[in-house]
Amino acid sequence: MPLQIKYGVSTWLWTSPFRTESIQELFPKIAAMGYDAIEIAIEDPSLIDAGAVKKALEQFGLQAIVCGAFGPSRDLTHEDPAVHENCFRYIESCLDLCVAWNTGFFAGPMYSAVGKARMISPEKRKAEWDLAVKNLRIVCEMAADRNLQIALEPLNRFESDLINNIGDVMRLIKDIDHPAAKILLDGFHMNIEEPDIERAIIAAGDQLIHLQVSENYRGAPGTGQTRWDAYKRGLETINYKGVVSIESFTPENKELAGAVCIWRPLAESQDEFAVQGISFLKSWAN
């Protein structure tokens, strides 16, 4: 039985940072490729005219997914409360974009800074966990005030020492104890951290509100070693009807490529990556 899903792709596949001017290049071709949704990676909200983006979404018939970028200055586990406040202000801007674009949730690894991967004492880890829980409860209230949810994304062990797998994120949601706290799973990280992807998806259940995919090496879906049969069985079991979104990164932006360790092109072109990826996903889902 075919999966009842929508197909999305991240703006990071082509550009960083996303800005209003990115609309002209990206929106027409993403729609023409057959995608239903565009996953907009928000690095700097001040670069974006929300009204212009909304108009383009309507013009090209695209649904928006809003994902955040969390570096050292946006770390809810930082010892300095001023860093938390900076992160809250950024998240608030992103939540307002969600409202403007009729997007039901804000997604990303917003519990800590990406790349914060250290061997620390159990006492230090508990203190950071407690900070993440406390601050994410505040974020959930901010989201709920706008009738939104948040989708928390586990990262692999090389990018985070806090939330790596489905067990971690389920425990985090339990401790946050707020109905706005939900889950985003990313296949790249699952390929590293999950012994069984099907079981991880089933464990997430109705808490899973977004799924990102790429190949095990961050390449186009269908070109690597990923167990797509396990993904499909898991999604069928939980009756997932959300967006399955391709997330990879352009090697052209050296800062971004360096941050995600992409040292070479992963396809003949980024457009070819996107075309090949959606072709495979539509065949896989059916």
From TrEMBL:
Residues 29-256 form the Xylose isomerase-like TIM barrel domain. Keywords: Isomerase. One of its GO terms (molecular function) is isomerase activity. InterPro entries: IolE/XylAMocC-like, Xyl_isomerase-like_sf, Xyl_isomerase-like_TIM-brl. It holds the Pfam family AP_endonuc_2. This is Sugar phosphate isomerase/epimerase.
